[in-house]
Structure formats: structure tokens, C-alpha cells
């Protein structure tokens, strides 16, 4: 074999090796660029889920995820004060409704003017629907059942005394379902609300009159039973 032929073959093998190396390098670069692109896309996608990075994600043209805000429901609840410090409420709203405001007969607030200022309202009127259950505003013993007005046997009151707390409560304008001597728990039924439309025609809001006293001194029940907005967990149907 001639010297020139040997040289030509050697040059051919060298060129083939160089071409294979170039192809391999190009393939490796292509694979690396693809991996970087995929990683970048994933990173940008993750950025889109971070609120602070949302502007950057929008600038890169990444679709924004849909975020549904949590639904928070709040209800007005009546929370009784804890007098004895045991961590449990000692008072409760007898009707579960707000105090009577102003109507044709004046205000139902504690201390409101009565009889042209001659006297003051000694209790708090809690709105009620005639016939609805009325519950004990505190625990104790039923010490008296009487009539709100002399000669009117339709409108009764129930007196509850709690010797341990030193408090007394009277709930007026109800049809009593308890008897003197009964022990009643906080929030237990003691009767039903009676309509006031016959006694006070022309604009009186039906209500229950609550008087609370400590060692004989009348107190404002709204300082013992406080209205609060409480978050209520959202319930879903099964």
C-alpha cells in the first residue's frame, strides 16, 4: 500500500471521529437546554402560586391560578358573663333576640324614662315572638311566680334566685311552665312569651322584661349579657 493511500485513510478516520464528537456535543447541548427550559417553566409556574411573585409571573406570561377566598360567616351571639370565675357563663339571653329599642311606648333599655320622667325602667326588654320558648337567664331556684300587674292574671313573672352567686332575676310577660321550688339550669325552658298587644295596643313590641339584681340592687342586664359577632364554620352538604 502506497504512502499516499495510508495518509488518506488516516485522515478519513480522523474526520469521522471529529464529526461524531461534534454531533454528540450538539446533542448534549440540546438536551441541556431542554432541561433548563423545563426547569424554568416549572419555576415560573411555582412563582405564579406565590402572591408576592405574581407580577413577575404575569410578566413572563404564565397563567395565574384561581384562588377562591374562604367564606367566613359571622352570627350575632349573646354571651353571658362569668361571675364566679369557673370559665362558664352565668347569664344568658332569655329570648335569644336583641333588646327592644324604641317603639310607640318608648325605649326598652335599662334606665329609660317612664311616666314622663317620674320613674325609670328597671329592666331590659328583650324582643320576643308570642308563644316562643323563654329560657332561664341564670341557674338557681324558682322562688316566686307572680303577676306583672295587679288584677291581670295573663301576664306572669318568674323569679329565680341563685344564693351561690348572690343574684336574683325576674322574667316578666311569660306563661310559666315551672313551679316554685324547682331547680332550673341556665338556658332551661321556664315558659313561653305572652303577647302584649292586648295590654299595650297600637305599637308595643312583644317582648320579655328581664330584671337582674345583686343583693337588692337593680343591674343593667346588657352588661351581663353581651352581644358579640362569632365566626361560624361553614358547613357543606354530604
Description of the molecule:
The structure is a single chain. With 238 residues, the protein is of the alpha+beta class. The protein has two domains: 57 residues; 160 residues, Glucose Permease (Domain IIA) (Distorted Sandwich). The protein is built from two helices and 15 strands. The strands form four sheets. Strands 6, 7, 8, 9, 10, 11, 12, 13 and 14 form a nine-stranded antiparallel sheet that branches. Strand 13 and strand 14 form a beta hairpin. The chain is elongated and about 85 Å long. The protein starts with a helix and ends in a 6-residue tail after the last strand. The mean pLDDT is 82.
CATH fold field value of the largest domain: Glucose Permease (Domain IIA)
Radius of gyration: 40 Å
- Tell me the fraction of residues in β-strands, as a range: 25-35%
> Helical content, roughly?
10-25%
| Helix-strand topology string | HHEEEEEEEEEEEEEEE
- Note the main sheet: 9 strands, antiparallel
Average pLDDT rating: 82
Structural class: alpha+beta
Amino acid at each position: 500500500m502506497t504512502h499516499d493511500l495510508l495518509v488518506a485513510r488516516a485522515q478519513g478516520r480522523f474526520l469521522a471521529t471529529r464529526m461524531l464528537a461534534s454531533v454528540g456535543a450538539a446533542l448534549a447541548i440540546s438536551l441541556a437546554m431542554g432541561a433548563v427550559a423545563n426547569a424554568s417553566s416549572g419555576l415560573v409556574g411555582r412563582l405564579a402560586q406565590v402572591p408576592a411573585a405574581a407580577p413577575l409571573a404575569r410578566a413572563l406570561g404564565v397563567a395565574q391560578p384561581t384562588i377562591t377566598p374562604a367564606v367566613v360567616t359571622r352570627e350575632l351571639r349573646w354571651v353571658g358573663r362569668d361571675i364566679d370565675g369557673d370559665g362558664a357563663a352565668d347569664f344568658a339571653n332569655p329570648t335569644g333576640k336583641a333588646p327592644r329599642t324604641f317603639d310607640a311606648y318608648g325605649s326598652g333599655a335599662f334606665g329609660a324614662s317612664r311616666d314622663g320622667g317620674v320613674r325609670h325602667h328597671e329592666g331590659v326588654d328583650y324582643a320576643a315572638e308570642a308563644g316562643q320558648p323563654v329560657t332561664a337567664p341564670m341557674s338557681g331556684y324558682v322562688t316566686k311566680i307572680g303577676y306583672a300587674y295587679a288584677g291581670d292574671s295573663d301576664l306572669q313573672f318568674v323569679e329565680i334566685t341563685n344564693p351561690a352567686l348572690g343574684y336574683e332575676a325576674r322574667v316578666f310577660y311569660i306563661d310559666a311552665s315551672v313551679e316554685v321550688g324547682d331547680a332550673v339550669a341556665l338556658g332551661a325552658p321556664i315558659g313561653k312569651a305572652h303577647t302584649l298587644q292586648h295590654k299595650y295596643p297600637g305599637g308595643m313590641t312583644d317582648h320579655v322584661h328581664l330584671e337582674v339584681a345583686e343583693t337588692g340592687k337593680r343591674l343593667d342586664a346588657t352588661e351581663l349579657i353581651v352581644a358579640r359577632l362569632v365566626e361560624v364554620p361553614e358547613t357543606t352538604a354530604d
